[in-house]
Amino acid sequence: MYDVLKGMRVVEGASFIAGPICCQHLLQLGAEVIRFDMIGGGPDFNRWPVADEGGSLYWEGLNKGKKSIAINLARREGRELAIRIATAPGKNGGLFVTNYPVGGFLAHERLAARRPDMITIRVMGWADGRNGVDYTVNAVTGLPSMTGMTDLPEDQPVNHVLPAWDLIAGSYAAFSLMAAERHRRLTGQGGEVRVPLSDIAATTLGHTGQIAEAIVGGGDRPRLGNDLFGALGRDFVTADGRRVMIVAITGRQWASLVQALALGAPVTAIETELGVSFAREGERYRHRARLFDLIAQALLRLSFADAAAAFDRTGVCWSAYRKLSDAVAGEPGFVQGNPVFTPQRHPAGFTYPTPGAAATFTGLNRGPARRAPRLGEHTDEVLGDMLKLSASEIAALHDDGVVAGPGA
Amino acid sequence: MYDVLKGMRVVEGASFIAGPICCQHLLQLGAEVIRFDMIGGGPDFNRWPVADEGGSLYWEGLNKGKKSIAINLARREGRELAIRIATAPGKNGGLFVTNYPVGGFLAHERLAARRPDMITIRVMGWADGRNGVDYTVNAVTGLPSMTGMTDLPEDQPVNHVLPAWDLIAGSYAAFSLMAAERHRRLTGQGGEVRVPLSDIAATTLGHTGQIAEAIVGGGDRPRLGNDLFGALGRDFVTADGRRVMIVAITGRQWASLVQALALGAPVTAIETELGVSFAREGERYRHRARLFDLIAQALLRLSFADAAAAFDRTGVCWSAYRKLSDAVAGEPGFVQGNPVFTPQRHPAGFTYPTPGAAATFTGLNRGPARRAPRLGEHTDEVLGDMLKLSASEIAALHDDGVVAGPGA
Q1: Which residues of B60-86 are buried (b: 16+ CB within 10 A; e: fewer)?
Q2: Res. B52: pLDDT tops 90
Q3: Fewer CB within 10 Å: C terminus or N terminus of chain B?
Q4: For position B147, what pLDDT does the model report?
Q5: If contacts are CB pairs under 8 Å, which of residues 292-321 in chain B contact chain A?
Q6: Do the bridges between strand A341-345 and strand B317-320 make them parallel or antiparallel, or are there none, so unpaired?
Q7: Cβ-based burial of A278 (10 A; exposed 0-12, middle 13-18, buried ≥19)
Q8: Using alpha carbons only, what angle is made at residue B38 by residues B36 and B42, rounded to the nearest 5 degrees?
Q9: What are the φ and ψ backbone dihedral angles of B296, each rounded to 5 degrees?
Q10: Using one digit for the tens of pLDDT, what is the confidence trace for B183-236?
């Protein structure tokens, strides 16, 4: 945890990935995040992966360091409490991140009626309010028909396993919140910012030229197996059967690869034969089958250790493929030996390396990541500190079943 | 383009995706972005996809709306100009986004020597300075061994086609810049913020519980084909051969699906037989083979139109699979009919729908997206306005080959 955003207070009424990871990013830079949940847990409280005993490792990861208040949101009194928490006073408050629907009890207009400078960041499926999650939006993008081995039938989609749209939406929502907060500081104006997964996906494919490609560049990109599109890159196998990913996007990366594998003469021979220069990434891509043959043959004569040494000597851009467990245990600087991670014991009962911010602010102190809360662990603290309720008022809310503490 | 960040001025000395898309996000909310490039173009100037005539649709997409100055960075005078542009005075300036190496001529310390409150956002491959791009970092994560059909050999990786780590890094870098700028406003302090792809990947897998899963939850996740992990979701085919993605992560999504396909009786029969409740997503996942059979059979009796109507009536979370070209032309609100996109003619000579910000700031005016610059189009403007060079000084830089205008 850094102190960069210290003093900022964000309320989260959200579930699953985009909203919670947005607030996790804010928290890791120093913001205080108060998450409210239904008593017994929201729809993501048991999301897999889970530990043997049933605690959700997913929930722990996304919500570590947050303050948790458990509210009976099925009751009017509970919904009123949630609104009061979201709109609580304070110059650095009035920041609410949610995936509740546009027109529900957490509609921006209702919050702004309580606090005119309210900022609401609303993660959505489709911009028009249609149901959508990462995996359904991804089906629309066409990417599943571009993913996977080339011998698959054209109409066989291959889904991604990383919820990339959710994750991009999460960091983009954190960016949007910071922009809205800066704007409020300069103008006094709050407002609602909507971040739909559908627009995250469509703008991404627009910004990277893929929509233009589909319209003016010759239609849909074919399935390429593991080949990198538009330059040189693929997986290869070493003499001792290890698999590596090698990429030569820039001219320098290409020159390094040619040097590492001593391919100068055969590459020049192909260039002469074809009348092209492989200094251009487009030519490396067009004629990749020829180049892949050379590289594959060279690697089959090298052990992994020798290939790695040659690659690192000349500056090739490459990596070994790993299982995640191998990467965690054995890839230097990934988790082991990475100051971004600190061991932390979480409520499910396990101690494991727990990440802080992905960014390193050089010269500032990076404190350790904090553990996940138990559900409702901060119920009384939030009611007392934020809403200034007395001990007897808080006790009455417990007695009425409007709120609950941990273990309820 | 919104005006939310109007007045903020960001200098970009970066190539490929993460740095340029970070600045594209800032620009779309109103920041002025000045990108400097080598005369003739940086290493990403010809990156595919390209138009027939050779202009890069990728470069256009990532750099639209930016001011472009072309500098001979191989010369000392050119590097000095780049440093002066990055560190130019102005309360809302001194913001530099780059993927140049830590210790090179654009090292933060060198910039901070000119402008003590300088903020440098540096996108990197590995945090320790090792070479790495999206595709090599992804090989380490283990995700390629979890992607694709279950009949693949275990050691056959399947690469992603979306450079997800680059894209997450880009929006996270924009968030980091906003946080650093807020911190500077409050404390006067600038600094360097490093955003390595390796830490973006490792923290993401940590935040979503996958690292904990690999350590305490039973090792590496197996390849699941198109099945969603931990809940219910997969692709299915309708009677008329259309492919759809259906997801039931929440209890409500599951209830909607059971209702839409009239599966109440057979689902209850399986629950009774197994002694479980499919209201729990973990049970839906464990016994998914049984449920998939029911759903697949039901869909084979429904046309796509009938399935769509039933799904939308009960609120199922689903989508048809599309090719990207189909999605652009035919998915309502994705590109067609989406106010985020405006047609714009770009330097490669084509007019196509061009995206603005993924976020919608309700109540604020969203101006149209701007076209991409020609390389060096704003060379004289930047030298005159930012560095206050006279016309004769600018002419001398052109004559010396230190800078170039468009078409050079």
Answers
A1: bbbbbbbbbbbbbbeeeebbebbbebb
A2: no
A3: C
A4: 98
A5: 315-321
A6: unpaired
A7: buried
A8: 95
A9: -60, -40
A10: 999 999 999 999 999 999 999 999 999 999 999 977 899 999 999 999 999 999
Which of A252, A253, A324 is opposite residue B210, by nearest beta carbon?
A324
A235 vs B242: CA distance, rounded Å = 33
Give the model's pLDDT for residue A54. 75
- What number is the ipTM of this complex? 0.98
Q: Give the other-Cβ count within 10 Å of B162's Cβ.
A: 23
Helix ranges (DSSP H) in A237-362: 251-260, 264-274, 281-286, 288-300, 304-314, 324-330
Mean pLDDT for B23-33 is 98
- Distance between CA atoms of residues B220 and A325, nearest Å: 6
Residues A186, A175: contact at Cβ < 8 Å?
no
Burial B295-305 (b: 16+ CB within 10 A, else e): beebbeebebe
Give A408's pLDDT tier (boundaries 50, 70, 90): low
Q: What are the tens digits of pLDDT across the range B153-181?
A: 999 999 999 999 999 999 999 999 999 99
Q: What's residue A407's pLDDT?
A: 75
pLDDT mean over A19-37: 98
Looking only at the bridges linking them, the beta strands covering B32-38 and B67-71 are parallel
Q: Which residue has the tokens 């699941």?
A: B224
Kindly identify which residue of chain B lies nearest to residue A63, measuring between CA atoms: B207
For residue A247, list chain B residues with Cβ-Cβ distance below 8 A: 133, 135-136
- Comparing alpha-carbon positions, the chain B residue that sits nearest to A29 is B179
Tokens 């330059």 sit on residue: A231
Token pair for B91: 């309360």
Separation of alpha carbons A284 and A250, rounded Å: 11
Catalytic residues of A: 166
| Lookup: tokens for A95 | 């920041």
DSSP string, B301-317: TS-HHHHHHHHHHHT-E
Structure tokens at B176: 């980091």
Q: How many DSSP H helices and E strands does chain A contain?
A: 16, 13
Model pLDDT, residue B408 = 61
Contacts of A164 in chain B (CB under 8 A): 160, 162, 164, 167-168
* Mean pLDDT confidence for A94-102: 98
A56: DSSP letter = B
DSSP string of B81-107, one letter each residue: HHHHHHT---TT--EEEE-S-TTSTT-
Look at residue B276 and give its three-state secondary structure. Answer: coil
Whether residue B247 and residue A133 make contact (CB cut-off 8 A), yes or no, is yes
The pLDDT value recorded for residue A278 is 98
Report CA dihedral (B126, B129, B130, B133) to the nearest 10 degrees.
Answer: 50
Give the pLDDT confidence score for residue A351 in this predicted structure.
97
Alpha-carbon Rg for chain B, nearest whole angstrom, is: 26
Tokens of B129: 């300075």
pLDDT at A53: 73
Pairing of strands B341-345, B351-355: antiparallel
Distance CA A226, CA A222 (A): 12
* Angle at B66 (CA atoms; ends B60, B69), nearest 5 degrees: 100
> Is A187 an 8 Å CB contact of chain B?
no
As beta bridge partners, residue A404 has A70
Which candidate, A156, A164, A308, A327, places its Cα nearest to that of A242?
A: A308
Residues A373-398: b if buried by 16+ CB within 10 A, e if exposed: bbbbbbbbebbeebeebeeeebeebe
Average pLDDT rounded to a whole number, residues A294-322: 98
Distance CA A41, CA A60 (A): 12
Contact A142, B323 (CB under 8 A): yes
- Cβ burial, residue B51 (10 Å; 0-12/13-18/19+): buried
